[in-house]
Structures are given as structure tokens and as C-alpha cells.
Amino acid sequence: MYAGPAWYRKHFKVPATFSGNKFIVEFERIRETATFYINGTSVGTFSDGISAVGIDITANVKADGTTDNVLAVSVSNSGGGENWNSNATNPDFGGLVGHVWLHVPGKIYQTYPLYQNLKTSGIYIYGTAYANITNNTPKGDTGNLTLNVEAEVSNESGSAATATLGVKVIDPADGSTFATFSGTAASLSTTATTVLKASGPLTGAKLWSDLFPNLYTVVTTLTVGGTVVNSRSTVTGFRQTAFKGGAGTGGVYINGRFVYMLGFAQRSTNEWAGPGQAVPDWMHDYTANLIRGANSNYIRWMHVTPQKVDLESFDRYGVVSIVPAGDKETTNPTDAQWTARMAVMQSAMIYLRNNPSAFFYEAGNAAVSAAQMASLATLRNTWDPNGGRGVGDRTMSDTGGIVSSDWFGTMLGNSGYQDAYRDKGPELEEEDYRDEGMRGIWDAYSPPHVGGFIPGATDTYNETAESFATGQVSRLNTWLITDTIRNTSAANSKYSGYGSIYFSDADADGREQSSCVCRVSGKVDANRIPKEAYYAFRVAGNTKPDIHIIGHWNYPAGTTKTMYVVANNVSSVDLLVNDKSQGKVTKATNGYQYSWANVAFASGTIQAIGYDASGAQACQHTLTTAGPAAAVKLTKTVGPNGLQADGADFVMYDVEVVDAKGQRVPATPGPTTKATDNQPINEPKITFTVTGPGTWRGGVNEGMLNSTNNLYLYTEGGINRVFIRSQTTAGDITLTASSPGLTSATDTVTSKAVNVVNGLL
């Protein structure tokens, strides 16, 4: 990836009606150092590459309706001096990779949660006195609570003022007002900020949980002399949490209900191949929806603070997060390193403390001293004392930090498990199953990769999608069945949560010189196409009967192989080839996995049926043999509001090779060619043409160097995915995909004009 300087310039005009207002620019995420200019004057710098940052440009903005203001930002990702600025920890995607907001409040206003530069803390919303909680109602958990709001207020009017903080709670589901209340009037200092408070009861509130992520909009207003002078809206949720220790009874509790944390570790960059890190909100939602589709509810972000846009998605979808600060596996960091790390954590707590999906603050990867862990707890108690969030660490070298920790992390289950940890609070596995396997290499029997690996691969990871999935199933059995804290046996009552590294294949760890261009530990590939291991998670995490056949049913004649099925909440599984039973299996190999040796391929169907204890069918999964490759198929995905012509939105196309009936052909040899890196490519080559106001970003072949942004791509297991970015001109964008010997596919998407007035959206 490119490393070096880049410049941004934003031209905008401000109506004269805003003359006399404040002008504050909020940058959600910058990678990684920046200098800011307004109308040629330097107004601040930024260096940590993680935190949100605010810039006050009030003194330099011309608000007359005619002057062309220019906000310029110089950004460099070539190294900011912090030890977490490395590809292994925080891959160097560069530039403004998060939203940029212009806030224009009056001179008496509620501040913004932008501690970097502005030293302001914004609004803090939290619940206390939870009571009468009811679980599993049709709309989720409900209960009573006291809602508390603390708003930091700045009075820059130059005159003394008395203000009252008002609160209105709105149910976004129907727009109705759920509650209103106000605090007492308070004097506002003109020399320092003042925190105004208000509290009121919420009766029968819909509570937030992983199963029912109910949210409310909290509108806070400042009233001075009977006039509302400032209003802010915060989307948040209310939930009661508890972090308990003890064999058989410990774990993470949400609204009084035990919740097993099942999910993944994921780089905080959360990037896509082709689009990179700076993607629209709906693509973050797409990832969150996939995580929930795997019946998972937990992400351990690595190894820096996650992006706010991801936590907002997780708020909506019910995915619990571990929030680190910034680290690169430094054991007992020096005072200077720890101070820098805690500065990031302070900014993160202030910025993210109203996101209900943030549950755990993490000290780091490696062990920290008892004093350092205590200082993290003190920081939480200062900035987020009532948010129901615990502090902990991935590694505990001894009992030094146990007094201050609320939860305890491990990696590969080998970080020194001790009963003392389990009995003090939940143990969460954060980085298990570091194997790697490409999505498109099915198994040892599937063309064009017969033998089950990339020809010429020299690294240690030659897993197929099949072996990668069965290996993951074995690990799920250990953490979810054998060593879960809900076991009554103290010897096996250990873990309250399980995270497998990664969710999606990632551009990290310097693996670009291996047989893959990214680290392929993900359960979906770098563009979120699921691997077989993804479906293993879905089955293992399901509370109802579920079943999945690992692989496909398109083999060369004469193939005989072992077939694997993942099933849950069943008493037995039968496998049928063209309706002929291969033998009912009543006991899984390791809790979830069932297998049948020497299954002979026969064109038609293969079906797995799960039965309950009474012998009734509980679930089934069927695969059908596809015919010869006949055509290319395109399927587009856009955001919920269509493709926006804002220069930042994307349309996503799945490109498949299908038979005459439109069914994907999962194993399709193409003409053997040599790619630029001398890697044999035997999959069908798809060539693309694009017309209209769109910028081609392409996709990726994970076993091939330099495949992004090319106007061609090879399918992998019959499918791949490509992207076109919108431009600032609206219109029809047409994509054609073709391959020799196959019927081409063409699709058109129309980007929609966005209303930009004088440079402001």
C-alpha cells in the first residue's frame, strides 16, 4: 500500500445567518498524522493515528455567504512514532478514513466528545437503578431504570447565563416520545466548562441486548431565558451488565441473562480488498449483519481502538465489543509507552461511552503491571463510571493485575489459565485458531486445485476450505462444550467467551510474500464472501437445530471421499446421496461434526438430515450438482438508499460462473495461464468493462499478487466480488463481465444525485 503524504482540500461557503456561531470540525479517524489549515492558517495537528480529533476553526471562517473558505488537511501514513503504527497492529491505510463533520452551534452549547485538541468530553448518558427486568419478551428485554444525562456545556458568549438541561427520549422505531424530564437551572461560567445534569425515570423501557439491540434517541437541549439555544441528539441503548466469576455460575450477564460471547478477533481497520478502509456506513452494517448471521455476538478488536462507525453498526445489530487503546504486544510498557496508550484510551472512553455495544476496555495484548492495570480502572472510573463496562487484559502473567481486572483474556487458551481468574471474573478467549485457508480451494479432490493447495506454495499454511472448517469445528467444541464456564465441573468450567482470529481475511502481519496476499485466517474472505468455516460458526452458535454440509457436490467421475457435516441440537444425522442413505450417525466426532468415509460421488443431490430424540426431522441441508459452465452472472448490492453520487459510496457486484439453470458451478477449471507473479491460475478469467460516472476498484484474488484494481479477475470456487465507487456526478453506470466460452452478463446501476450546497452536504 502507498505510504507517504496526501492532501485534502474542502471548499465551502457559510451563510451569513451563521455569523457569530462556533465552527468545530470533527474527524472520526485519520491514518495517521495530520496538520490542519483553514484559509491558509495552521489550526492544529494530530499524531496518534487512532483517536477522533476536533479542530476549532471559528476564528478563521468567513460567514458571509460569499467567501470561499478552504479547509486543508495534510495527512501522512509513513510513521507517526507510536509503537502501534505497524502493519502487524494497525495496517497503514492512509488518509481521512472516517467521516468528517462540521458542527455549527451557538456560543452556548453542549461540547463534543473530542478530547484530542479540544479537551472536551461532550454528553454522557447512562442508566442506574435497573428493576423489574423481564427477559425474552417478543420485543426483547424490558425493565425500569433511572436515566441520567451529564452534558458538558461551554459558555463562550462573554456574558453570564443560567441554563437548564432538558431531556427527551424518543423511540426511533415509531418516532414516539417515551419520556421527558429536566434538570435544575445552573449558572454557566464564561471561563470554564460546566457539567449540567438531569435524571428521570424510564418505566417499561426496551433494553439493549445482543438478541434484541433496542435503541433510543436521546435529545438534550439547553434552555436559556426560556429559549432553546442548543439541541443535540444521541442514539444509545440501556442495558444492565454484570461480570461474574465462579464455576458453573460465572460469565457475562446482560439484563440478568447469561450470554456466552461467541465470535471473532478482527483488525480495527476492518478493511475490504479494493475499497480499502474508507467505506460507507452500509458496508459496516453488511459486516455486522454477517457476524450476526453466524450466530455470533462478540468481536475482539485488534490492537487499537475500533472505529466509531463499527460500534454504531454493532449497536444496531447486537454485537459486543472489546475496546483496546493502542498496543503492539509490549509487556510491562515503559512509563512513556503507557502514558501514550492511556491517552488514546481516555479519548476512546469519552468518544465511545454512549455506544451500548462497547463492553470491555482492554489494557493490551501482553501483561501490564498491577499499577498500570489499576490506572486503567481509575481511568474508567473517571470517565465512564456508570457505563457497565469492565477493564481487563489479553494476558495475565501473574496475579498482579487481578485486583483491578473485571475480566481476563487469553490467546490460544494458553495464557496461564488459573482458577483465580475464572473465580474473579469472566475469561474470554480473544485470538484462537490461527490457521489459514483460502476460500476458493475446496478440498483435495476439487478441480482445478486437485491436491488441495496452491501449486508452488512454500509457506506452512496449505489448508483447504474443508480442513480449515473441520479444524475450526474442533476448536468450537473445546470452548463451547468442553471448557465453558457453565459446566458444573470446576476442572472444565473455564471460558465465558470464544473469539477466533479473524472474521475477514486481512491485509496484516506482513504475509504478502506467502502464497496469499493477505492473512487468510478469516471465516469470510477479504471481501466478505463466506468460507465453509463461517457456516460452522452459524451451526455451533444456533440454539435451534441446524445443519450444514461442508463443501459442494461437483466432483470428477469416480471420486470417493470423506464427507463432513456440521450439526447442532440433533440426536442423529443421516447423509443421503440421491436419496440413498450412507448410514445414520448417532454420535458426533467432537460435539458438532459428523463424517462419512468413502462416499462415492454421483451426479444429483447430497442431503444431510438431522433428527431429534423422537426420530422426527429437525433440520436438513441439500447440495445439488451443477451442470457445465454456461454463463457469467452479476448480482449487485447497494446501500439502503441506493448508490449515492457522493464520490465515496460503492456498488458491490457478485460475479459467478453458472450453469444453464443459473446455478453456481463451484468447481470450474479454466484455461491454465500464468499470472504476473508466475502463480498458476486455473479458474475462469472474467474481464470487465465499465461505462458511466463510476471509478473501478475491482476485487482480489488472494493467491495472486497485484490483483486489485485490474479490469479482470479470476473466480474462486465459482464466485468473486468486485466494486465500483461512485463519483460526484450522478448517472447510469454499466458493468459488463465476460469470459471465453460463456455468455456475458451486463447490469446497470444509477447513482443518485446528492444535495451539496456551497460545498456542504
Any overview of this molecule?
12% of the residues lie in helices and 37% in strands. Mean pLDDT is 92; it is low at 672-680. The chain has an 8-stranded parallel beta sheet with strand order 26-25-24-23-22-29-28-27, covered by helices on one side. Strands 13, 14, 15, 17 and 18 form a 5-stranded antiparallel beta sheet that branches. Strands 1-7-4-5 form a 4-stranded antiparallel beta sheet, with no helix packed on it. α4 (335-352) runs parallel beside α5 and α7 (465-482) runs parallel beside α8. It contains 8 helices and 46 strands. The chain folds into 5 domains: 5-104, Jelly Rolls, CATH 2.60.120.260; 123-236, Sandwich (Immunoglobulin-like); 243-278 and 328-346 and 363-536, Glycosidases (TIM Barrel, Alpha-Beta Barrel), CATH 3.20.20.80; 555-624, Immunoglobulins (Immunoglobulin-like); 631-751, Immunoglobulin-like. The protein is globular, with a radius of gyration of 27 Å. A hairpin with a 2-residue loop joins β20 (251-254) and β21. The longest helix is centred in the middle third of the chain and has 18 residues, at 335-352. With 761 residues, it is mainly β.
